[in-house]
Amino acid sequence: MMMSEVLSPAYVLHSRKYRDSSLIVELLTRDEGRISAVVRGARSKRGRKGGAWQPFAPLLVSFLGRGELRTVKHAEFLPTAFYLTGENLLLGLYVNELLVRVLGKFETVPAVFEEYQRLLAELNASIGLTATVEPDTEPRKQAALRHFELRLLDELGYGISFTSEAGGGAEVVPGRWYQFVVNQGFYVMGAGDIEPDVGYLGEHLLAIAARQFDAGPVELAAKKITRLVFAGLLGGKPLKARELFKPVAFNVDLSLVKAQA
Fold first, then answer.
1. CB 228: neighbour CB atoms within 10 A?
2. CATH number, span 3-77
């Protein structure tokens, strides 16, 4: 069987119009990482499943070509699509844009693919729980997001050591405060330099290392640290998806957001 005929598991990260009747889609594939591809005729009257090329859609796909922009040869959409709504939709769009921005093309990252699937499953499962005001829904979602972000950084080669200091490599100790420097790590803070707004407690760093995000301060610390690292990887250009979180406070119809994404 030719390689071009092999169907690879993938998820749609983003799609946009291309010429009169086609689409350009950004895909996260299990076997080749991120791929940009043309779906010819997807928007024509004869096009099949043109509307199915939406974010979070799982499929099996094969390609033609070997350049930066492939052509979709065959696609089979799976029945296990994730239909995210509300804040879950915004979180999903944030992750999709992050992957498009920081993941180079054709970087094989099966661990990221698997973590992405787990995150979507967690967001999808929490939709039904939200209506019943489950107290654990929000912490679970945020914990899943932190798991994903940290795994992504590991796979990109920007993994963070939360158990040892930068430089000398001394062990992080509970009760001490540490300052984080991007691309370097954590430095212990002197008694006169402690500023809770910019410092991190040793016990929180050790909890992050163990991926234990049960406590709110631990999850918040992980969020602040990953944001600092991603800001550098994004070249100081913020993600557009983060701006979409603002309408939530004003009861904006998020279906419109999805349609425009």
1. 14
2. 2.40.50.140
In this structure, which amino acid lies at residue 69? L
> Coil, helix or strand for 238?
coil
pLDDT digits (tens, 9 = 90+) for 126-159: 765 444 445 567 888 999 999 999 999 999 999 9
Sheet containing 185-188: which strands, arranged edge to edge? 185-188, 177-181, 199-201
CA angle 150, 31, 95 (to 5 degrees): 35
Q: CA-to-CA distance for 245 and 91, rounded, in angstroms?
A: 9
What is the number of alpha carbons within 13 Å of residue 44 lying toward its C-beta? 9
CA distances from 235 to 56, 95, 202, 228 (A): 26, 17, 29, 11
Q: What pLDDT, in 10s, does the model give residues 36-69?
A: 999 998 887 665 555 689 899 999 999 999 889 9
Q: Residue 69 forms beta bridges with which residues?
A: 36
